[in-house]
Structure formats: C-alpha cells, structure tokens
Amino acid sequence: MGAWGPAIFSDDTAADVRGDYRELLEDQVSDEEATRRVIAEYERLDQDEAHVLWLALAAAQHQVGRLDEDVKRRAVGVIDSEVGLELWAETGPKELAKRKAALSRLREQLTGPQPARQGAGQAPGAGVRLNGVKPSLTRARTGVRGLAWGRRENQCGGGPLLLERELRRAERALRDRLARQPEEQHRRAEHQTGRDQGHHGVAENVADLQP
C-alpha cells in the first residue's frame, strides 16, 4: 500500500490522480475529457489499488466544483462497500478508524451540496506559499526518487502535502537522465577510444621519424 497516512491524498496513487487531473484542467482540457483521460490512465491499477482511482478523482473533482455524477457514484460505492479497508485493518484499529473517518467525511462531501465551480488555479493547494522547510526526498509509486516538500502552507493554514506536479517533473527528468546514461557512456567510451587511437597513431608516427 503506497499510503503514508489515512487521508484520501496521503497516498502515492491518489496524489498522482489528483495531480494529473489538475494538470489537464490547467491545460484547458474540458471536464469530460479530463475525466476520461485520467480514468484511461489509471484503469489498469492492481486490484488492491483500483478503488483509489475513484476516491481520489471524486475528491479532486469535488475540490474544484466539477464532480462528475458517474465518478461520484463509483466513489460512494467504494466507500459503502468498504473496499480497501482490509488493508487498513492490518495496520491496527487506530489507523483503521482514522481511515474510516476520512472516508466518511469524503462521502458527506460527495453527497452534500457541491462548491461553486472553480478554475484549476483556484484549487486548494494551488498557489501555495512555502514556509521555508528544506526539500526532502520521497519515493513515488514508480520507484524513482524525486523531490518533494515536507510541508507547505496556504491561506487556510499549513499541513504536510506533496507537491505532486514538481515531483512528477523531477521523476520524468530523472528517468530521462537514467535512460540516456547508457548512450552517453557509449559515446564517452567511443570518444576515449578515438583519443587513445589518435595518441597511439601519433606515437607511431614519432617513432617512425626517429633514426
């Protein structure tokens, strides 16, 4: 389980779902298309994680007043059927109770009055003010280490939140760098071989000139 806490977004996959959804909105993708793309991206999750997609997407949509009815239905179904709670039961009764409370709050949010529709830049956590905490390293579900901030705060107060977008960018940059390493090493080896051969040729030429 890629979760570090009982809150909905204290989970690698959930944080990725919300981050991808917000990026699509920022790119001016329509609500329907953004929903479709996110579902298509995460619909092949393992059985243990499949339910996280619906919880995270519904919560992310609720935050910006764009809750899709089908997504809402799927998320409420996950909550009511207690899918995924067996994993939390293994962590102990206290953590299980916290997770149930988080799910109960989410259910109330999804089934209650929805907030006014917001732009992507108005989503909770957007335009945050960093409070001077050093960056730390965290491991995302891809297994690649990337940068994250241990804490950030906005006008509503501070809290431990993952800067999903920056983390994914760091991951992509690191993956690209790792992917290029064999090619770069090969080029360096060829360059070094060429230099060695050149030096060897010069040495032979000098030797030929010697009496």
UniProtKB/TrEMBL annotation:
Transmembrane domains' residue ranges: none
Compositionally biased spans, kind Basic and acidic residues: 174-202
Feature: compositional bias, Low complexity: 112-127
Region spans: Disordered: 109-135, 174-211
Pfam families linked to this entry: DUF4259 (PF14078)
Protein name (Swiss-Prot/TrEMBL): DUF4259 domain-containing protein
Species annotation: Nocardioides mesophilus
